[in-house]
Amino acid sequence: MRPAELERVTVAEAADRYVELVRAKSLTGGLSRSTAEVYARDVVTFVALAGAETVLDDLTGADMDAVLLAFARKPDGRRSGATGGGAPAAGADGGGRAGGASQSPSSQARFRRSVSALFKHAVLAGWVQIDPMASSTVTARERGGLRPERRALTREQAQGLIGAARSMSEERGGGRRDQRMETRDALIVLLLSTMGPRVSELVRANVEDFYTNDGVRYWRIFGKGGRTRDVPLPRDVAAALDDYLARGRAAVPDKALLLSWRGRRLARGDVQAVIDRVRARVDPEQRRSVTPHGLRHTTATHLLADAVDMDAVRRVLGHSDLSTLGRYRDELPGELEVAMRAHPLLREPRPSD
Hints:
46% helix, globular
């Protein structure tokens, strides 16, 4: 028997209320705007797959498995070349179209997290007695599902990309200052490769977010949930930043750090094109496709492999707890062999003074 306080809301009603709450959190700084929109888009997709008029409390674990499988089979417009953007149309049956790529494992895992967040709120709000996601069995291997270009670069590949960026920053091309993008592109790659910011944090950066304290250049990064972190720039990156500000950035009123040649704030979608331009200069033996997220993996992987304190790496990346680091840590070829060769218990003891 249902408790008297249980509110039998439909999937559509619950989704509307939840999305309104999520967007309110983004306005108060409790959630980033981009994260709120991802949640909202996934919830709209959930309504289409579960049925708008279905009572939320009537959904079972088996029903949620069917929804998750239907989402997994949906064509991914970003990978199949479809022109439509945004949330899938209501009434989609979850079957794949001919020639369309299904959802990637990382997209499936993200969708599951969004729906789980909805049901956690539903339990607290009294819309459901039991969270059906707790008995769902469909999962996606998010880690194994990372596309190759989203994984960390090896040391040689990363050094090749950084070397190409450095060589670009040294060029003194002709033409108008506001149309020379070499120093800007070099700075973008150096920041992504060595500091691992989220691409949203990078394009959101303003000139005033960079400051000097006791001779050290810092970047005050505005991250998820309204949190900020002050991260020191490596010396070479600080030099690239100063070079860009001195001769690469257009003299316009916009406070954005990274500007297009038209003098407007760079968009998230432009960053991949910048990486690809720099990558084209890398020696073919060291060249590999990589995304901004892959460079975030690269930063975490090589800092941890070099025995940098885990909490320091967490603070550089802007994670709230250490457990999240596991998703940003990739294995490196030969890493175990190096570790065992330098085993601390087999080193010669130091002579006493």
